[in-house]
């Protein structure tokens, strides 16, 4: 039986897109406390099935598929630009296909405005009306109000008419940044993209016997399985090591590992891989918010996914991508790496940021392990000594030395030089991936 929290989430998800909801309404309709209703609405907001807008309320929006992540809803635009909705509130759940900046004559401008667009323009009232009648929403910059007739038209056509105090250039920059952020999220590989669903997963109940494990092991050739109780909650994990000396009629709950590490569908594959290496885990149960089994993920699945994603072209570059793209093998020393500091990698003082610096040294260490030991790795811990500031356009040389190497772990010494002057040093411990 599902929990009250799950029932509330299912109810919210069943509402028509565009419906407005409130804590009081949910509490009254489902006979729960306002605190319970509030927690469910916040969870729905985290899942991107509702959007809350100041002075408007909470609106049910369409769940985004990954291929549509770059498409913002008008509700999201309102929050991005700190906007005020002047009209067309019932259309806030709709997605914009593109935005157009209104800096031309009306006739020229309207040739570029299509249904589903967002026109960004100042206090040009005739343009507002033309855009709305063409099926586009309107974002008025400069904090201007609009005539009541325009507000009524926006309400009638269910197309948002939004006002913001920012100027046109700033608004366009903010929306572009939001779309870039969405595209980066689209590129992040999540557990939900690669996990094996429960319907295709072999698992055991806590009341099963060890003999059942052995039958399942013979049938599937898997070494470990999640264990659930009568309510489908994950209560343990059982592996070959757990049952090695157990009698066949012994209960699984007596030999299983209790309170296992679990993972959610929205966890990144990179985070999962780090956890699995850190804890030496080969299998992770995937659960929902109520700890009910959704499926499993294996270390092999994670490694294959990471290797495949690293070969895919990226739509947008993160800071890590920019840093790594600047790293090249040194011409005078094939065991060293050279690196050029660009403006994106600097802090407000115009020197290399600490984040970019740590990316340089950890990636240099990883490259050393890949080239010299033919292994993949993740950082376990590091001690960093940032001895001198590194200015913009500096050309750095990073020298690595593998101090210790074992089947599970490696220690790498890293030194960073700017024009032969030591500017930073680090000792990094890496966990090694099994292949």
From TrEMBL:
CBS domain ranges (all copies): 195-254, 256-317
UniProt keyword Lipid metabolism present: no
Keywords: CBS domain
The keyword Protein biosynthesis belongs to this UniProt entry's keyword annotation: no
Gene3D superfamilies reported for this sequence: CBS-domain (3.10.580.10), Hotdog Thioesterase (3.10.129.10), HprK N-terminal domain-like (3.40.1390.20), Winged helix-like DNA-binding domain superfamily/Winged helix DNA-binding domain (1.10.10.10)
InterPro entries: CBS_dom, CBS_dom_sf, Diverse_CBS-Domain, DRTGG, HotDog_dom_sf, Ser_kin/Pase_Hpr-like_N_sf, Thioestr_dom, WH-like_DNA-bd_sf
Entries under PROSITE patterns matching the protein: CBS (PS51371)
PANTHER family, per database record: CBS DOMAIN-CONTAINING PROTEIN, CBS DOMAIN-CONTAINING PROTEIN CBSX3, MITOCHONDRIAL
Protein's UniProt name: DRTGG domain-containing protein
Organism annotation: Chryseomicrobium palamuruense
């Amino acid at each position: 039986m599902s929990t009250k929290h799950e029932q509330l989430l299912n109810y919210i998800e069943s509402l028509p897109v565009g419906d407005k909801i409130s804590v009081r309404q949910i509490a009254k309709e489902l006979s729960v406390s306002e605190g319970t209703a509030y927690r469910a609405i916040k969870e729905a907001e985290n899942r991107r099935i509702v959007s809350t807008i100041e002075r408007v309320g909470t609106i049910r929006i369409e769940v985004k598929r990954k291929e549509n992540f770059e498409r913002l809803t008008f509700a999201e635009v309102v929050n991005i630009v700190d906007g005020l909705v002047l009209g067309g509130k019932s259309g806030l759940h709709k997605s914009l296909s593109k935005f157009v900046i209104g800096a031309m004559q009306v006739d020229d401008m309207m040739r570029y405005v299509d249904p589903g667009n967002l026109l960004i323009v100042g206090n040009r009232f005739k343009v507002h009306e033309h855009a709305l009648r063409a099926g586009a929403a309107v974002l008025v910059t400069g904090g201007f109000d609009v005539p009541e007739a325009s507000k009524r038209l926006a309400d009638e056509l269910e197309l948002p008419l939004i006002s913001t105090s920012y100027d046109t250039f700033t608004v366009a920059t903010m929306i572009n940044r939001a779309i870039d952020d969405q595209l980066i999220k689209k590129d992040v590989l999540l557990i939900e993209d690669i996990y094996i669903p429960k319907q295709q997963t072999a698992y055991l109940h806590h009341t099963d016997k060890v003999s059942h494990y052995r039958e399942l092991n013979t049938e599937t050739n898997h070494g470990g399985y999640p264990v659930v109780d009568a309510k489908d909650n994950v209560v343990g994990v059982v592996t070959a090591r757990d049952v090695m000396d157990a009698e066949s009629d012994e209960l699984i709950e007596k030999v299983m590992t209790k309170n296992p590490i679990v993972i959610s569908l929205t966890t990144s594959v990179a985070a999962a891989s780090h956890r699995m290496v850190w804890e030496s885990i080969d299998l992770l149960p995937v659960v929902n918010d109520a700890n009910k089994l959704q499926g499993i993920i294996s270390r092999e699945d994670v490694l294959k996914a990471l290797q495949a994603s690293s070969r895919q072209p990226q739509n947008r570059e993160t800071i890590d991508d920019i840093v790594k793209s600047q790293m090249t093998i040194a011409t005078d020393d094939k065991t060293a790496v050279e690196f050029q500091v660009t403006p994106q990698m600097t802090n407000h003082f115009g020197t290399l940021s600490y984040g970019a610096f740590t990316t340089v040294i950890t990636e240099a260490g990883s490259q050393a392990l890949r080239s010299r030991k033919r292994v993949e790795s993740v950082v376990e811990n590091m001690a960093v000594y940032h001895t001198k500031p590194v200015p913009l356009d500096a050309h750095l040389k990073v020298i690595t030395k593998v101090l210790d190497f074992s089947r599970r772990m490696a220690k790498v010494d890293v030194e960073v030089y700017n024009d032969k002057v030591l500017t930073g040093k680090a000792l990094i411990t890496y966990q090694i991936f099994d292949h």
